[in-house]
Amino acid sequence: MTSIISQSKDRRNVLITGVNQGIGYALSKNYMKQGDKVFAVCRKSTQALQDLTNVTIIDDIDITDDHKLADLKNKLSGITFDIVINNAGIMTEEVLGGIKSEDLVRQFMPNIVAHLNTTQELRENLSLGSKVVFITSRMGVC
Predict the structure, then answer these.
(1) Distance CA 107, CA 137 (A)
(2) How far is CA 18 from the centre of its chain?
(3) Residues 6 or more apart whose Cβ sits within 8 Å of residue 109
(4) Separation between Cα atoms, residue 51 and residue 41, nearest integer Å
(5) Which of 23, 97, 110, 119 has fewest C-beta within 10 Å?
(6) 8 A C-beta contact, residue 34 and residue 103
(7) What percent of the chain has pLDDT over 90?
(8) How far is it, in rounded angstroms, from Cα 76 to Cα 18?
(9) How confident is the model at residue 2 (pLDDT cuts 50, 70, 90)?
(10) Would the CA dihedral through 48, 45, 73, 114 be positive or negative?
(11) CATH architecture, domain defined by 13-134
C-alpha cells in the first residue's frame, strides 16, 4: 500500500483543513517540505503557519458554516486537488457517566458532517484519482 504522504516526483495540490495547530499544521509542513503546493484552510491563522513557504493560507473559514464553505469554493475555483485532507474538528473531554447528548451532537457536526459537506462542496475540484482523507478525533465514527 502506498502512503499519500510519501515522496512524489510531481508537485501536488494538497488542501488541508484545520491547519493552525496539531496534526493539520504538521501535515501542512510535511507536504510543503516535499515541494507540494499546500492550501491551508482554517478559522484563524497562526504565526507558525504564516512562516511556512509554498503554503496558501485561507483563513476565516469555519467548515460548519455553509456560507463560509461557499466562500471557500469560490476562492478555490479552477484549482484541482490531488489530495484533500479533512482534518478540522473539535474534541471535548467527557467521562463515561457524564456524557451529554448535546455535547456529542456538538462534536459530530464539525468532526463528521462538516467533513462530508466540505468534500461535497469541493467535488468540482477533484479529479479521477484524487484522494480524500477524513481525520477525526475520538468522537468521529463510532
Answers:
(1) 9
(2) 5
(3) 64
(4) 15
(5) 97
(6) no
(7) 67
(8) 16
(9) very low
(10) positive
(11) 3-Layer(aba) Sandwich (3.40)
Q: What is the pLDDT of residues 74-91, one digit of tens each?
A: 999 999 999 999 998 887
- As given in the structure block, the three cell numbers for residue 111 are 468532526
Q: Dig out the grid coordinates for 6 from the structure.
A: 510519501
Task: Give one DSSP letter per residue of 57-122, joined into a string.
Answer: EE-S--TT-HHHHHHHHHHTTTPPEEEEEE---------TTS--HHHHHHHHIIIIIHHHHHHHHT
CA 85 from centroid of its chain's CA atoms: 5
> What does the pLDDT look like over 113-131, one tens digit per residue?
999 999 999 999 999 999 9
User: What is the rounded average pLDDT for all residues in the chain?
Assistant: 89
Q: Which amino acid is at 19?
A: V
Say how many residues make up the chain.
Answer: 142
